[in-house]
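Same chain as my last thread, 110 residues:
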Amino acid sequence: MECRFTPNAPNQPPQAYEGAINTVGLDVGITAGSVLGWAVFAPTTGLPAGSLAGEYVGASGDIGLGLGAGANVLLGGSGRTIALQPLSLQGSVAINVVLGVSALKLRAAP
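reply #2:
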């Protein structure tokens, strides 16, 4: 997936990341694309570019009939000092049900 982090701090440009998310568990149905969004929490401001790179793990759930909605509880990150907001919102076009454990890997895009 392609990811973009937009810092709240002034004069900091958006940062590009590449990622992959894998889910182990129940996944029944068909999904055609989706959009995920998370708030990012860090212990300090002015983080250097690439700081969100790392691995995140947690639980996932999604249900869809036409338009879908879901939530991902993911924790982790670079040196375990940066966390994605515990609940992310997901929108998709789907006929499916997903429940399981997810892993997200992010790396800074070249």
